[in-house]
């Protein structure tokens, strides 16, 4: 080989010689396959390590004692696609902390109970983010514009916080969102435009809140929703008009509410007659002679007339301890639109109209002791606590790292509903209501009363009578229809 050729070979070898790898931060483990990763979990770190290698794609900082995310913590990590920083003591995220991370796809900030509030500009620019965990962060509110520009977001976890109100258009930019988890908060009402923009939402979980009022247009953009959970709230009425936009709905749970089964329930009862999906029972709380009955299985005649809830006192199997430890008592419907309707009754003193006298009949389906047994009453007071946990390792503090997509859901194919735990889907039952020819009307209407037993999925029916005393002046205004 000539001298010129040797020099050329040496030059090529020098150009292709690998540069010295950047040092791995102390207390961390670094590896490059399948992606460049820094793993620093469970190291007792009080701050985010400095000098994170520029080429890092995945950073795991969970289960430490980090209290602050500075605006300069990740300025060099422009290639980062996954950041887990859950299960720390984070109380402040400085503005701009995630600025420039336009390749970030998954961000997990869950289990930071002292976070409480997040600046509206925190997530700006994260145009490829598809999974965001903000569950169990002690959040008191969602700032206006917090999710603005997150057009790729598909999974949003907000459960188990202290949220009391959701502002209109909070999720306006999230047109690709498919799963929205809001259960385990303190949300009291759902306004007209609270879910505006969620045109591709598939699953909406709102159970175990304090929802007492749902605007009749609250679900107007949710035409693709297949699952709605509203169990264990404070609902007493819900109109069929409210449910009408949910044309793709297949799974509905409304149990654990104190339903008012009178004329205000008729539109919901009518909606259930055409609903082809599956739902839980809707156990009536009032009137007393229908207590324990499933609203869907009532006859049309059962829903005639409107009661005055203040004159109906019930502390039976539907009375359950509130979060403050006190027993819930019967209250008037909290929906201002529905409660204003008095059907055919004029505005007058109605305290004498209804007097309900219920007889406990023998059970036709169970040989258990009578519900009048005080020990059984005490047992029936207990309510089953429904727990819904996603079958995903991301939602626990002991998250496992492997070479899979690290808890992310594939962007193309959503996980099927059948993969969820059985308790997530059940108990559900067909919502079809058997039709029955109405019998002739009489002033003394007979009805069925149902006695709840310890198992919430079983029921025992018995015969009973409810005495309805209507003044003659009311008969002319409210003729009986046969």
Automatic annotation (TrEMBL):
The keyword Signal applies. GO terms for biological process: positive regulation of Rho protein signal transduction. Keywords: Leucine-rich repeat, Repeat, Signal. Residues 318-343, 358-379, 389-408, 424-464 are annotated as: Disordered. InterPro entries: Leu-rich_rpt (IPR001611), Leu-rich_rpt_typical-subtyp (IPR003591), LRR_dom_sf (IPR032675), LRR_TM_domain-containing (IPR050541). Residues 1-23 form the signal peptide. This is Reticulon 4 receptor. It comes from Varanus komodoensis. The lineage of its organism: Eukaryota, Metazoa, Chordata, Craniata, Vertebrata.
